[in-house]
Inverse folding.
């Protein structure tokens, strides 16, 4: 039996909170793109991530209730050698769905989670 040493994969996370306004999406997407570029993503990967993030943020802002409009949209991007994980936490009220509290913050939250495999 041959053993292989696994190379540890270092994860880096970038977090951003933006006001619930469409005008704030573009500067946030640019900041995330810059972070991902610094992590060595290829142009095609950068475009895919930027598009997914922009769509998720726009959706979160366009469909928020008036009461939740005061709450920020939170973005978390985690990147390692094999994948990029995009999370957009919004405050959209959803009907007919059972809300699950998030383990860390103990608050009810919905949003977008996207995972992209990186090219090697």
């Amino acid at each position: 039996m041959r053993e292989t040493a696994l190379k540890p994969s270092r994860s880096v996370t970038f977090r951003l909170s933006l006001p619930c306004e469409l005008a704030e999406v573009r500067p946030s997407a640019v900041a995330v793109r810059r972070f991902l570029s610094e992590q060595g993503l290829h142009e095609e990967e950068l475009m895919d991530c930027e598009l997914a993030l922009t769509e998720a943020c726009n959706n979160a802002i366009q469909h928020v209730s008036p009461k939740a409009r005061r709450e920020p949209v939170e973005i978390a991007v985690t990147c390692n050698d094999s994948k990029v994980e995009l999370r957009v936490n919004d405050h959209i009220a959803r009907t007919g769905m059972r809300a699950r509290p998030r383990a860390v913050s103990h608050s009810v939250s919905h949003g977008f989670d996207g995972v992209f495999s990186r090219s090697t």
User: Anything to note?
Assistant: The beta strands are 12-18, 73-79, 83-90, 110-117. Residues 12-117 form a domain with the Heat Shock Protein 90 fold (CATH 3.30.565.10). Confidence is low (pLDDT under 50) at residues 96-111. The chain is about 30% helix and 25% strand.
